[in-house]
Records
---
Amino acid sequence: MEKQNIIANLNKHFGLDPASSKILVVGLGSTGMSVAQYLLQLDFKFAIIDSRAKPPLMDEFMEQMPDTPIFTGGFDDHAFKVATHLVVSPGLSLHEKVIIKAVANGSKIVSDIDLFACSVTEPIVAITGSNGKSTVTTMVGDMAKVAGRRVSVGGNLGVPALDLLDQKADLYVLELSSFQLERTSMLNAAAATVLNVTADHLDRHADMAQYAREKQQVFRGNGVMVINLDDPTVVAMKESDRETLTFSIKTAADYHLKSIDGNEYLMRDDLALMPLQALPLEGRHNAANALAALALGTAIGLDDDSMCRALKKFKGLEHRMQRVAEIRGVNWINDSKATNIGACVAALDGYERKVILIAGGDAKGADMNELAPTIIEKAKSVVLMGKDGALIMQALENCNVPLYLASNINEAVQIAARLAVSGDSVLLSPACASTDQFKNYQDRGNKFTKAVLALAS
């Protein structure tokens, strides 16, 4: 889209004008940096503010934009007072007192996804959910590439949405978090899905109902809704006057599983698209992810052959049910990206034989009693660690499953190694955030991998 058309859109929808608007970008992480570069290209006046003394991208920012004001080490009241618009990083709560005060005084909240939506005319596929969204986003992107589309993939996954604008795509596939969606009003995706809703981020959202409402924002507009029939919360989001495609691994749906001559197939209605065993991923939750991706791909016109070829080559994501090693007959699996209860449950449900589970970290206010039924059914023993390890142990004490407490990931791996016998699987699927002991879930997964590989030596 031409620069003048983007500015006209921003002015129409948000009153953003390069001549008079004073924009405060709150947070200098990857999203904040992408917003700054975008605003600079459009000649908007803006400043950056970050509560940290030295944000991670400060040096890069100072080199690229030395004349742009930046405030660090706290939230300066004056900077908020003069701002006409705020672009708040998804990592920051909108309930910060200084943000609430600024909005009460007339500042408007604009998200990076709003800025993105005002800057493209190409179709967008928007994907959210408590679990599986990175996998499905990557699947749909791979499908589009195999089909010959110029596709850009990002958002909450990898590249910030605004950085995708430089790539001259004819299709955008975005993973979106609840934090991005809660501050977004302009999204109108050609196809969108809420994969599932399970307890997560209840330290930021008031309750499950509010969390679900934020997820539902992905369905704004008039595009195709892709609905998971296995999740009642998602089914309740269905709009009767909208085009809808459904998927399920449990019941009849537009996209579903069916047994034919003893083999399960991924199906569209009565058409067998591919054998489930040709999908190179562990766990039935990945069958659901594949069905969702097929529905989204169909909604934007991708052909069956390209979609199935992409799925057959899909090797999964790092830190998501990733096989680390087999050591003395024991399989070690890295599912560090399972940062909530639902993701851990989905991982455990994918196993027929009981596993040794390593879990724990920052529970983010979730009720860990919800893990108990799956632990009873699927866990041989559980090794707990992190800030809320003892809290989780208390929640699981009546499960009649052996529980062990470790002070760190290395000790957790050592305990699991002593417990495991040939034929066992040890699964790191924490059901918790990682930032109590690690930089992020990737760091947690890497340290787990390092500790496991040390066992071999």
---
Amino acid sequence: MALPKLSSEAKVGLFVLLGIALLVYMSMRLGGINIGKEKGYPLFVEFDSAAGLDPNASVRVAGVEVGRIKTITLKDSKAHLELLIQPGIKIGKDFTAVLTTKGLLGEKYLELVPGQPGAPPLNEGETITRTRSYADIDRLIRTLTGVADDVKEITESLSTVLGGDDGEQTVGNIVRNIEELTSRLNRIVAKNDEQFESVMRNLDSFTTLLNEEGPAITGGLRTAIQNLNESLVKTTGNLNGMIDENRGNLKEGIDNLRTASLSLQQAMETVNKVTSEVGPGVTNTMNSVSSIAKKIDDGEGTIGKLVNDKSLHENINKTVAGINSYIERTENFHTFIGYRGEYLFDARDTKSYLTLRIQPKSDKYYLLEIVDDPRGKRSVERRTVTTDGVVSNTEEVKTTEQIKFSAQIAKRLKNLVVRGGIIESTGGAGADYYMFSDRLKWTLEAFDFGAEGNPHLKAGASWNLGKFFFLTAGYDDFISKVGLRSAYIGLGLQFQDEDLKYLISSAPPLSF
């Protein structure tokens, strides 16, 4: 049994139904519309700033996706994130949440850095308390500049204290003063030792002399001398006793003084030796530090140029400004892909549009469209009819399906968008007016000015049902002279590049 042959209209209808089914599935995936309860459990985390992070962004551990960011809200002047973690994934209480980026200009996502193994896991609805922010280029440059200034101040201080002839002279004076003090102590000890010995010898000699010359002295002189001798003997005995009693202490003190002198002398020799050995090294080190500081101050080397060269600072600032400007332009650059079908009541057929909108700026975009028009190609059939002997000529317009294209450039002025270029393979222009925060759009287009049945004018309106779906209705070719006027109603879908990127990244890999 042969299969029935499908007409062109049936094929187009099947193609449109398959396209709509695919777009509905993509919209449900991108919009987070799930049939049944979402799988996973919620966790929360707060950051001072979540700039550049979008809902549905990836949550990763060690580079492996373990969940998605469900919502981002403002709470107490901080970004409050609700995470949806996959079932069976345990997040420890000592995990650290870090905002990071895939590459230099890649999408931002949330990285959870594990802590100690065996830490207790977070329960459903708890908050990750440890967070860390990423550093930027401006902060790094400011830190390097501060470090360079600190190094410069330290080297200048060391050079001032120990550098030059004054520093060397100061160290030499200290060493000479210590040597002179040691020499004076040695002389004092030696001098006092000789004086004590001389006193003892003189006392012994005087006593002996008196004993030997005693018989020659007579009378009272002898008595006086004897008394004096006895007194001197007693005094000498007392002095000898005192000397004997204190000789040990005196000798011990002299010995201690000599020992201290020898120790001081050895210490000075050690100091001199260390100074002679270490001194050149210290001097060389200080000279090197002073040389480095001088080079930095003179602008030599990378650090010197970074600290002193104003042009280098300006170039770095310009580079950072250029990078920021490029990132800002990249973030403002968006691409939109869409489809809409308009059912023409007069033709009882559907007119399909496949749309690509490239938007480099918020107030400017380029619009490319492929149009499947069921009445795109027109032909006039003339016939001669005879009625009751009267001959008359009649014309009948026939239309066939045709693929057309549009290429327009648009400029937005507040709520009004003016665009022009090629509309459905002919020259034309159009205008759009937005209301209610861009949810409602009024449209007027004029094109095909060389047509026999007046220019093609089209007016309508579109209402956004959500992020992806919108309804459209209006009147097409409403001043046509050849009977092609038709009201229409339609349904459309539109996806942003971020939505497509999320869909592609979240789709399961193909297996063959």
